[in-house]
Amino acid sequence: MASNTQQPDLQWFTSARLGMFIHWGLYSLPARHEWVMSKEKIPADEYERYMQYFNPDLYDPVQWAKDAKAAGIKYVVLTTKHHEGFALWDTQVSDYNIINSPFGKDALRMFVDAMRAEGLHVGFYHSLIDWHHPDFTIDGFHPDRDRPDREERNKGRDMAKYREFLHAQVRELLTNYGKIHYLFFDFSYREDWPDKPEKGGKGRDDWASEKLLDMVRTLQPGIVVNDRLDIPGDIVTPEGYQPTKPMERDGREVVWEACQTLNGSWGYDRDNHDYKSVPLLVRMLVDTVSNNGNILLNVGPTARGNFDANASKALSDLADWMSVHSRSIYGCGHSSLTPPKDVRYTQSGKRLFVHVFAWPFEFMHLPGLAGKVAYAQLLHDASEIKIIQLDAEAPVTSIHMRADSKDTLTLKLPIREPGVAVPVIELFLK
């Protein structure tokens, strides 16, 4: 049994509901997806050239923090190092870091200071994978996987040395930057997984996961750690899909976080224009909270260090919605009540929030709520919504409707849908 100091502090996490992911590194320069080194099989010595051109002169984490806070985001997670191996901080165990780029400053220190100044919880992403490190063995994801001398080259690589390096970098991150609330490791891929890559997958033994996690909890008591060390973590992190109900493991409900992109790419991808609309992003957020989850919404800054126009607009529009609807998100979760079609419920105590995905004509019928609601209003402007109790046994006529059942509550809605991404009706339960 872990000591109390090693128990994760999940209270802030489950209350926050909305976080921001930021994928930023050398891959922002080619701007062709954060996996460009692997996808295009670029050797490490060739990929290194990007470091000499990495000079994000527009990097302003203070603005990042302000934009995040305005959008209702409560915690921000930055990639300290992605699979490419390039570190955004002044690591002492590798020269492959931002201090040796033209930028020459510790971007991570600037990020942490800026987020804290806005009262945001600080999270670090750290890749377990490192395609640049000379002792990281070539596997099915490695850029050199198809080289004919792959096996011969692997004979000179030592994962034990890589483990020491991995642990040393994590120790730096959790020692030198004050309180860190969340650590997102990425990722394990054992050979016996159903979607295994080519021979050479990696998992808990390669990372010495138990030892690594014990160090993390010792250095940062209360930190929340995800589930990608190939051993159980504090939360479950579905990526790129939306669970349709509260998540469970072995029959027990678990804390979870959906990781989602704006356009299908985590890093800046110049020519990818598959951006989700803001109404869709809001529906995804609501869907997640209605099933007791968080959503970690990703932005990939450009190589100059700013958010591109599409990302900035998405955050601005999200800010507009959250500014008047956030109480249907923060501290809310799944309701035991069953919503009608095209509606999602979130609940906090005696307040039930009705998120309307498709605006109906004049009336909304809510099963199971007859006699249970004291007052109803549109959340964005606190304007009253009339509650109607229809007779379920009345005869059907050409101009009069009746309730579907005795326990159905009916709301009389304005004909015109409110001009917000997703309208919300707030019900005060008796």
From TrEMBL:
State the Gene Ontology terms under molecular function: alpha-L-fucosidase activity
Q: Does the keyword Hydrolase apply?
A: yes
Q: Could you say which EC number(s) this protein's record lists?
A: 3.2.1.51
- Species of provenance: Pochonia chlamydosporia 170
The transmembrane segments are none
Q: Does the keyword Hydrolase apply?
A: yes
The entry's protein name is: alpha-L-fucosidase
Site feature location: May be important for catalysis:
C259
Q: Which Gene3D superfamilies match?
A: Glycosidases (3.20.20.80)
